[in-house]
Design a protein that fits this description.
472 residues; mainly alpha; 2 domains; three-stranded mixed β-sheet; 24 helices
Length: 472
């Protein structure tokens, strides 16, 4: 039987919104002033601070699926689209919210969230990519900043309402609708129309990104039609936060030419990612049902799903048996990575290290392999090799988990000041500047620091103090 949640009256919804914003104001650094009428536009620095503050608040309020393989897949798919945009060098941050709600959203400054419900509801990679392309276009066209410029400080309430709806709707669909509708009740009609025009613009640019990236753009139309079909009698979060009607679907259809239909719609990577997400977003009871549902389905994806499901419910021996067979029949890197993970869970560290060393030789610089290998090396108290791996990985780009494992390895290796510096670097990437400053200060207290290390740390501290000063 479907549980019916009470629908909040508008007054209650507005009170809930107020409480959410009040909590946010107490827990976050002060947000920049929005839409100052004396300024021509919100500055890039203000937009960056706004996006970071909202992102940090969401991370502290919603369950985020922090899986390096899934994140790597999502970012890789998104990067294909970003490189075709007018802001190919811009920094984006993608994350997966553990929520059955079918939704995705863009925060200021390139923070893009995808709900697990939307990811799992997509039938193919083209559909998922169409959502990413749409959200990326919201960012590159600075739609939120343009709304701020258009409407002044009052638009802050609309942005905050959207944030509150994301928070509440992720846990209670009808309550999320009440917050969204209650909060928007006082918005000017021009602001709502402006949002609708943004949706059309994001569709148009998103379709172009898909085509240029070599991805079939039919996925956008398919997903729109799928959402409209599902919305009959159901509450679909995506439609609430992204106005959708048959006119928008028709316009998207008209932009796609016949020759675009020959572009690929799906990939093996998407199928592996969807199977992995199905397991990681489920509780143990649901995981057992997934195992049963896939028991008699033939194919590598069903086998992979069952294997990682067994690892999650602490039956790693069964996972190992499946994955050992799969490694001989299929060469996708996630199979052997998951085999190493199963051996790790089974405390068979020699086999774990054997497979990860082999993977590191095959895929040097592949972040999921580097992190898994370094974690295993730390676990068996062999940090020196892990330090070398992680420092080489930093040549390909920074990531908070690299610095977290690097700090752990430095501590194991007796290099306390280096560990503190690595933790500080981790916090900087995550936007926790005061915590990072504490780590740098603690590292500078070490008397055995070399002159070069002391100068480097002092420079980082000074630069961070300037960032904090500008933010405040």
């Amino acid at each position: 039987m479907r549980v019916k949640y009470p629908v909040f009256p508008c007054r209650t919804a507005q009170l809930l919104l107020f409480l959410l914003l009040l909590c946010a104001s107490r827990s976050l650094a002060e947000l920049p002033t929005l839409g100052d009428p004396t300024l021509d536009s919100i500055s890039a620095r203000e937009e960056a601070q706004l996006g970071l503050s909202y992102y940090q608040y969401l991370k502290g309020s919603l369950p985020i699926i922090d899986d390096v393989m899934l994140n790597e897949y999502l970012e890789s798919l998104a990067q294909k689209l970003i490189t075709q945009s007018d802001e190919a060098g811009r920094k984006f941050t993608f994350f997966i919210v553990k929520s059955p709600a079918i939704n995705a959203f863009a925060l200021p400054a390139g923070y893009i969230g995808v709900h697990s419900g939307l990811f799992l509801d997509a039938d193919n990679e083209s559909q998922l990519a169409s959502v990413l392309a749409h959200e990326i276009s919201h960012v590159t066209q600075r739609h939120l900043a343009r709304m701020i410029d258009e409407s002044g400080n009052s638009i802050a309430i609309n942005v905050a309402t959207l944030l509150a709806a994301i928070l509440v709707g992720s846990k209670n669909s009808e309550a999320g609708q009440a917050v969204l509708m209650g909060g928007l009740a006082g918005a000017q009609q021009s602001s709502i129309n402006f949002t609708r025009s943004n949706e059309y613009e994001a569709d148009r640019i998103g379709i172009g990104l898909l085509i240029e990236a070599g991805i079939n753009p039919d996925g956008m139309v398919e997903f729109f039609e799928h959402l409209l079909d599902k919305s009959s009698g159901l509450q679909i979060e995506y439609i609430r936060t992204h106005p959708l009607d048959i006119n928008r679907v028709t316009e998207a259809k008209n932009r796609i030419k016949d020759e675009h239909s020959s572009l690929p719609k799906n990939s093996e990577d998407f199928l592996f990612a969807k199977a992995r997400l199905a397991v990681l977003s489920s509780n143990n009871n649901s995981v057992r049902k997934l195992i049963t549902a896939n028991e008699h389905i033939e194919g590598v994806i069903a086998d992979y799903l069952r294997a990682i499901a067994y690892t999650k419910i602490n039956q790693a021996d069964k996972a190992i048996a499946i994955l050992e067979k799969l490694t001989h029949a299929h060469r996708h890197p996630w199979i052997k990575l998951s085999l190493a993970d199963a051996y790790y869970a089974n405390n068979e560290m020699n086999k774990t290290l054997y497979h990860l060393e082999e993977m590191n030789n095959l895929y040097p610089g592949y972040l999921p392999v580097t992190l898994a290998y370094s974690r295993a090396l730390n676990a068996v108290n062999k940090p020196e090799k892990g330090i070398g791996l992680l420092l080489r990985q930093l040549r390909h780009g920074e990531h908070p988990e690299i610095y977290r494992l690097l700090a752990q390895a430095y501590y194991l290796n007796g290099q306390s000041s280096a560990a503190l510096e690595a933790t500080g670097n981790q916090y900087v990437l995550q936007g926790y500047y005061e915590l990072a400053l504490q780590q740098y200060n603690n590292a500078l207290k070490h008397r055995d620091l070399s002159q070069t290390s002391r100068a480097r740390l002092q420079t980082k501290k000074d630069e961070l103090l300037e960032v904090i000063k500008q933010r405040d």
